[in-house]
Amino acid sequence: MEPRLPLDLDSETMRQMGYRVVDTLVDYWRTLPDRPIGTRPHPETLQAMLSEPTPTQPTPFEQVLDELLHKVLPHLIKVDHPRYFAFVPAPNEYVGVLADLLSAGMNIFVGTWMVGAGATQVERVVIRWLCDWFGMPAGAGGLFVSGGSVANLVCLAAARQRYPDALARGRVYYSDQTHSCVARAWRILGLREEQICVLPADEHFQIPLSRLAEQIERDRAEGLLPFCVAANAGTTNTGAVDPLNELADLCEREGLWLHADGAYGAAAILTQEGARRLQGIHRLDSLAVDPHKWLYQPMMAGCAIVREFEHLREAFRILPPYLQDKERGAAGVDLCDYGVELSRNFRALKLWMSLKTHGIEAFRQAMEHNLRLARVAEDALRRLSRWRIISPATMGILAFRYEPPEHTPEQTDALNRALVDAMIADGYAMVSSTILRGRVALRMCTLNPRASEADVLETLRRLDALAERQLTPQAGLQ
Ligand SMILES: Cc1ncc(COP(=O)(O)O)c(C=O)c1O
């Protein structure tokens, strides 16, 4: 018998390992709702448990998998848990998970047409589907990236490229509700602090239009070059959508690039509420949208979409000699020329397989369910005394605050912050906090399609009981 090559496994062993992994996943999915949300252990605990030198001897796969399940998994918070309502949940969908397995298993390269034609075409098809949802014209295009942060960066790089003077005297605008990845993108792209104008949002957490117009005029008068507005198509804080139509009017008039960060919110275009709030999205110059958020895909799936696909190429294409072969023969799109990455895996596969397997109607229904859950939460909170709605259910996000009458605002802030930790310690569900209008607010983001109304109501009941217990520490949580 020929000696086995290093790292080689026989077919039967491979199958058994694979079956074991799928069984593990299915069991995990089935039991997740009955398990605690997870924990946030001290670093020393995990260091003691997991630190070890590089393994020199083989360990049976079964044992390694067991370590993952027993030493790692219990020591994190599960962002796919149906009662994880914190930040932006990441409820992945099983077909997308299998697609990731296939994509990794076949290690499909989607950097150039020469090597990755079929996969490139699938990616182009999926991006076209998204462009169609958003009403983008035929020349629109885009690509998959790791997530919202990179999607925004890629879009804003295209914007900067269109304005040759941008680095010297450019000025960009967004509201203070904008995700920090937009600020980071501008920093990476070389803009200085003074080139960035952050406008305080209005009472609806939207960018104030007249202040924006005035600021643009003032900046022009000072010899600056206003060139880009980064709008929100669903803020992380409250789900607010900036008035895209009005912004498009202004940007058209003023010759500015209009971008929107729709990382979490833009996919809601499939729903009634989303379509209403996102009116004008078809007029954007660029849009970031994350299938790994509200399209239920496993992590590492964001999309950068631009109205003119070629604008990405202008921003990113460089041809080194060792890639010259890709330029000959059948000429398709080389996606490495349209973004940051050369080695690109097949991220589009998950959304492609997922949408084809379930059909878009299932997605729409799941999203409508998500939106309904946020409204259910709002109604329930309005029925409880001492809870104030800070921002009503908007695109699946609700912000609220527990306000005992005898507390100062500072004490109330501290109490609400403490509630996040109390919820984690309780283990049933998780919410997160933010600052709105200068005060701490809790927020629930109900994006998991496997969350039920009962999950939402029980989470609020527990929050209420925990809040009461903060006031009267001797009372136990029922
Ligand atoms: C509105 C918005 N933009 C951008 C991001 C960043 O996306 P990612 O974490 O995929 O980089 C998020 C993340 O939650 C977000 O909610």
Annotation keywords:
478 residues, Aspartate Aminotransferase, domain 1, alpha/beta, 16 helices, 3 domains, binds pyridoxal-5'-phosphate, 4-stranded antiparallel sheet, globular, Aspartate Aminotransferase, domain 2, 7-stranded mixed sheet
Describe this structure in words.
Helix 6 crosses helix 12 and helix 15 packs across helix 16 (453-471). The protein folds into 3 domains: 11-39 and 41-75, Up-down Bundle (dopa decarboxylase, N-terminal domain), CATH 1.20.1340; 99-359, Type I PLP-dependent aspartate aminotransferase-like (Major domain) (Aspartate Aminotransferase, domain 2), CATH 3.40.640.10; 361-471, Aspartate Aminotransferase, domain 1. By secondary structure, the chain is α/β, with parallel strands linked by helices. The strands form 2 sheets. The protein has a 7-stranded mixed β-sheet with strand order 1-7-6-5-4-2-3, sandwiched between helices. The chain has helices at 11-31, 43-50, 61-72, 94-106, 113-133, 148-162, 166-169, 180-188, 209-221, 244-254, 272-277, 309-316, 348-358, 360-383, 409-426, 453-471, and strands at 141-145, 170-175, 196-199, 225-232, 257-262, 286-289, 302-306, 387-394, 397-402, 432-436, 439-445. Helices cover 45% and strands 13% of the residues. The protein is built from 16 helices and 11 strands. The protein is globular, with a radius of gyration of 24 Å. The chain binds pyridoxal-5'-phosphate (PLP). Pyridoxal-5'-phosphate binds next to helix 6.
